[in-house]
Specification:
The chain is α/β, with parallel strands linked by helices and 247 residues long. The chain has helices at residues 10-20, 42-51, 110-120, 136-144, 156-168, 197-204; strands spanning 2-6, 26-30, 33-37, 75-77, 80-83, 95-97, 127-130, 149-153, 174-177, 190-194, 211-218, 228-236, 239-246. Helix content is 25%, strand content 28%. Strand 10, helix 6 and strand 11 form a beta-alpha-beta unit. The longest helix is centred in the middle third of the chain and has 13 residues, at 156-168. The model has no long low-confidence stretch (mean pLDDT 91).
Length: 247
């Protein structure tokens, strides 16, 4: 099922669709629009059709559940090769191997790449990955020389996936299920938050670190974060990531 909305309405549409389909959906950038695509059984399809105007649909073909692998290819960010286990990293190049399964984060999304690029330019120290998804950013941080690294996510599936990602890369992470807006967070030198803009803003209000690398929002959006100063910004393919310092 496909839903197209103006870019200005994308944030609301994402939130609404995620309520109906918490298992996730594909997102495609169109000129002035965002297309959200979800695989749905008939009862869920009826709910989506009621919630959105102009929904289009087509029956799925056999093997649809593994088709995402065709789009999960290797990228480079921050001097690292990041890719799936069915590709071979170049010899001698530092690598992060990630198979996200049902968790967010292949490494290819512009926000993930931007976070890794910005991390690579920071002084090394401890890291808190707030909303770790598949664990790709946390493992990338370890590859870049940051330590120790804590990673938390509200989704237990994401935490399990992050643990597998760490094990596959021979990296030691302290991973736990936690809500970054509710639970007590460990202090760190750098917090990384590649999550929704409003959540980023509320997390920054808790000041879990003196330096923050944030993303998960579009290039025209800027976190409203009293007490934080902008240190750097990187824009990739219409998305943005920021380095912020606590004043």
């Amino acid at each position: 099922m496909s839903v197209r909305v103006p870019t200005t309405a994308a944030e609301v549409a994402r939130a609404r669709l995620l309520e109906l389909a918490p298992g996730g959906f594909e997102e495609l950038e169109r000129e002035g629009e965002v297309e959200l695509v979800v695989y749905a059984h008939p009862p869920l399809g009826a709910l989506i059709a009621d919630a959105f105007r102009g929904v289009t649909w087509a029956p799925v073909e056999p093997g649809w559940e593994d088709r995402w692998r065709d789009f999960h290819t290797s990228v480079r960010a921050g001097g690292l090769w990041i890719g799936p286990p069915w590709e071979t990293p170049p010899p001698g190049e530092p690598a992060v191997v990630v198979d996200p399964g049902r968790a967010f984060g292949t490494g290819a999304h512009p926000t993930t790449r931007a976070c890794v690029e910005l991390l690579a330019g920071l002084e090394r120290g401890s890291v808190l990955d707030a909303g770790c998804g598949s664990g790709v950013v946390a493992v990338a941080a370890a590859r870049l020389g940051f330590a120790p690294i804590r990673a938390v996510d509200v989704d237990a599936v994401a935490v399990e996936t992050a643990a597998r990602t760490a094990a596959a890369n021979g990296v030691e992470l302290d991973i736990a299920v936690a809500d970054v807006l509710v639970h007590e967070l460990p202090q760190a030198d750098v917090v990384v938050a590649n999550i929704e803009l409003r959540v980023v803003e509320r997390l920054l209000a808790r000041t879990p670190a003196p330096v923050a690398v944030t993303s998960g929002y579009l290039a025209h959006e800027v976190p409203s974060a009293p007490g934080w100063a902008s240190l750097a910004r990187l824009e990739l393919e219409g998305w943005a990531a920021d380095v912020l310092g606590s004043a």
